[in-house]
Amino acid sequence: MRAAVVVFPGSNADAEMIHTLRDVCGVPTTVVWHTATSLPPETDLVAIPGGFSYGDYLRCGALAKGSPIVAALRNHADRGGYVLGVCNGFQILTEVGMLPGALTRNLHLRFECSPRHVRVTAKGPFTPRVGDVWQLPIAHAEGRYQASDAVLDTLTQSDCLALCYSTEDGNISDSANPNGSARHIAGIYGGPRRNIFGLMPHPERASEAIHASTDGRVLFEAVLRLS
Amino acid sequence: MRATVVVRLKPEVLDPQGDAIKRALGKLGFDGVKGVRVGKILEIEIDQEHAAAPDLKQRLEKMCDAMLANPVIEDYEVRGLE
Predict the structure, then answer these.
(1) What are phi and psi of A175, to 5 degrees?
(2) Largest CA distance in chain A
(3) Domain extents for chain B?
(4) Quick one: A3-224 is in which CATH superfamily?
(5) Interfacial B residues in 39-78 facing A (CB < 8 Å)
(6) Residue (of A227, A189, A221) closest to A90 by Cα position
(7) Cβ separation of A105 and B17 shorter than 8 Å?
(8) Domain B2-79 listed as CATH 1.20.1530.20
(9) pLDDT band (50, 70, 90) for residue A121
(10) Chain B contact for A58 (CB, 8 A cutoff)
């Protein structure tokens, strides 16, 4: 397994992502600047970290469309390569059309920075066990997932709705939803083999003993076992 | 020449920012405000050569589809070619 972390101007969670992949999980990890036109050879997993790419101008993630690396990212995903988008990375993946829907302003308008629980609702490359409840931190102002009812139904029916905000006991409810996301969505799959995963919580900030939780490690270890 | 593009949230998309502005207007004593929706105006300067092209409006619409508006949550309108 080889990983690449794509850094955009304004990414600010890239150091944690690189550290988690390289030092915590022991994966050879290359850092790729957004102006690159190709990914390193034999890249299996591409991670797009959190932050404020292009200052969140126009809409979060929108200006990344113009970055040269996006075409290579799309080819990688079309071939079945794994792509992980965390927070702003998730916003970028929806803006470039690699994942459906949009991430909009939190319902209560506040930047929400807190530990949260999420429950795995579909098995996939990044979510090995349905029913798992993970404690992961969130840190965003635009995390309210929105899509048409038809898209939401398709996500549910195709096992792409994979991560929902829940209580510590795993109850998915309004009171556990920190941003007003449709169907309490925290993370979804897309791509030809459900090989693209986008989520608002930060698994890379919950992967070591020094963190409040190590549940995020499950996500990385699941995908790293696959190739 | 300058083109004006108006980008609005689709009517069915909740606008918590607009709701907050509506409440704040009430607090300032402005009664009768039934609703507020927040959108964007983009003023786009076009050079002479491209301004004269017959497909200018279509090109502006393509810009909207490609980046200026997000079709999942927003509608757009190209107006005021002046």
Answers:
(1) -70, -20
(2) 45
(3) 2-79
(4) Class I glutamine amidotransferase (GATase) domain (3.40.50.880)
(5) 40, 66-68, 70, 72-73
(6) A189
(7) yes
(8) no
(9) very high
(10) yes
CB A32 within 8 A of CB A3: no
Strand order in the sheet with A161-166: A29-33, A3-7, A45-48, A82-86, A196-199, A185-190, A161-166, A112-120, A133-140
Query: Best interface-test mutation with B: which of A70, A146, A155, A179 has the largest number of B CBs within 10 A?
Result: A146
Does B67 contact A146 at a Cβ distance shorter than 8 Å? no
**Token digits of residue A31:** 């850092």
Whether the pLDDT of residue B81 is over 80: the answer is no
Q: How far is residue A144 CA from its own chain's centroid?
A: 14
**pTM of this prediction?**
0.94
pLDDT digits (tens, 9 = 90+) for B47-70: 999 999 999 999 999 999 999 999
Q: Per the structure block, which two tokens stand in for A121?
A: 């609702």
Report angle CA B78, B51, B49 to the nearest 5 degrees.
155
